[in-house]
Amino acid sequence: MIVLFFEQLIQNMSELTVSFGLKVREQRKLKKISQEKLALLCNIDRSYMGRIERGEVNVTIEKVYELAKALDIPVINLLP
């Protein structure tokens, strides 16, 4: 029972990170900004930006705010 709970929790977290990443990608493309430029604006590596957009990593709340600021959008626009 506990194992099923944690498996579901991991799946839900994965869905959130993927959804967040897709929103970052969508907003970046709307602003016509490259991954590399957005990464530079947020002081992160371009490959890490790709991992964010693919939902492979959990980002800190601080990084969420930095991404929103760099994209010149409200934070709420990035939340799933």
What's this entry about, in short?
By secondary structure, the protein is an all-alpha fold. It contains 4 helices and no strands.
**Cα Rg:** 14 Å
- Reading the helices and strands in chain order gives HHHH
Mean pLDDT value: 90
CATH architectural group = Orthogonal Bundle
Instruction: Give the overall silhouette.
Output: elongated
**The CATH superfamily title:** lambda repressor-like DNA-binding domains
| Unreliable segments of 5+ consecutive residues | none
Discrete helix count: 4
SS class = mainly alpha
Share of β-strand residues = under 5%
Strand segment tally:
0
Largest sheet: none
Terminal-residue CA separation: 28 Å
Query: What is the CATH C-level name?
Result: Mainly Alpha
CATH topology: 434 Repressor (Amino-terminal Domain)
- As a percent range, the share of helical residues equals 55-70%
Instruction: Compute the number of structural domains.
Output: 1
Descriptive overview:
- The chain is mostly helical.
- The chain has a single domain, classed as 434 Repressor (Amino-terminal Domain).
- It has 4 helices and no strands.
- Helix 2 crosses helix 3.
- It is elongated and about 45 Å long.
- The model has no long low-confidence stretch (mean pLDDT 90).
Strand and helix layout:
Layout (H helix, E strand, L loop, with lengths): L1 H29 L4 H7 L4 H8 L7 H11 L9
Helix pairs in contact: 2-3
Short key terms for the protein model shown above:
single chain; mainly alpha
